[in-house]
Amino acid sequence: MNNKTIPNTIERTLNDDDYIVSKTDTKGRITYANRIFMTLSSYTEQELLGAPHNIVRHPDMPGLMFKRLWDTLRGGREFHFYTKNLAKDGSYYWVFANVTPSFDQRGQPIGYFSVRRKPKAAGVKTFQELYRSMRQAERRTAGKQAALAASARIYDDFLAAQGANHEAFILALQA
Length: 175
What we know:
The protein is an alpha+beta fold. The protein has helices spanning 35-41, 45-48, 63-74, 121-140, 144-162, 166-174, and strands spanning 19-24, 30-33, 79-86, 92-103, 109-117. The protein is built from 6 helices and 5 strands, in the order ββαααβββααα. It has a 5-stranded antiparallel β-sheet, sandwiched between helices. β1 and β2 form a beta hairpin. The protein starts with 18 loop residues before the first strand and ends with a helix.
């Protein structure tokens, strides 16, 4: 997360036909950002290129979601999720994200490609509440692994109550 940016309550939104596109290397450093990404995040191309993608991570986001993102990508699979991002000016914006690993000709990962679009309102409402519970659990639990485990219990119990796994639930919400 960008520790210099102080979040505020101003929300930005994507248009229905907007797509935020970015690419990163295997360490998560931005190698490409499209104009919509720059506009929505309030960062210039020079500020984004080479920066860690978590420059737009909002403090309301639970760490568990990023752990699961990275675990899934390292397993060679794509990951979908709702995420709240932080713009340089402190405003925020929600997106429905798809992050996919890119491979070289030998099948080795060379980076990650992400496309984000306008999220469904029902998805934002669901995840706003869920993420709040998860972040509270992470904050009140000592030790990173224990905090992630506490957050995982909340998320996994929620999914079990829905009768779905992460991917099925996320895609159904965005449909």
